[in-house]
Amino acid sequence: MSPLSNITGPIYASSFFVYQDEKNGNYYLQEGKDNVELGFWPKDIFVGLANGATYAGCGGEVKTEGTVKPIDAPVMGAGTYPDVLPEKTNFAYCKFQVVDEAHNIVTTPDLEEFTNNKEYNAVVTNQENAKFIYFGGPFPVNV
Q1: pLDDT band for position 119 (50/70/90)?
Q2: Does an H or E element contain 87, and which?
């Protein structure tokens, strides 16, 4: 995907939309304000979601296989904590909204936060009928 954000440059964002088609029951992934279809998941692989979902989540993961030196590990985070420079960490965020069967945005309950590395943290805010999750932290971090 491009363009890419940089902490010293402009901030870019993409929006993604996952929904279940009312007619065929398949789940679709769309991107951008023009809702370009990126792909779909057949309803047959989501038997438990035949009638919609009651839970949704988002986040990120950095993983490396085998033993590597910390300097070789993949980097996650903007280099700053989200509560220090929110205007520069917001390129590492998730705007999370939930829609109903008619694709109307619905109010969601509070979010559950989870991290297995306390070097990274998240700041959750409620705005525009959405949950914003800003995440980041220093790099490199030993994971």
Answers
A1: low
A2: helix 86-89
Do residues 9 and 78 touch, judged by C-beta distance below 8 A? no
Beta bridge partners of 31: 16, 36
Nearest CA-CA partner of 53 in 27, 16, 24, 29: 27
Q: Which of 124, 120, 116 shows the shortest CA–CA distance to 136?
A: 120
Print the domain residue range for 75.
64-143
- Residue 37 is assigned to a structural domain of this protein: yes
User: Cβ contacts of residue 138 below 8 Å, gap of 6+?
Assistant: 77, 79, 80, 81, 119
Instruction: Indicate the SS3 state at residue 89.
Output: helix
In a domain, 59, yes or no: no
* 29 and 84, same domain (yes or no): no
pTM above 0.85, yes or no: no
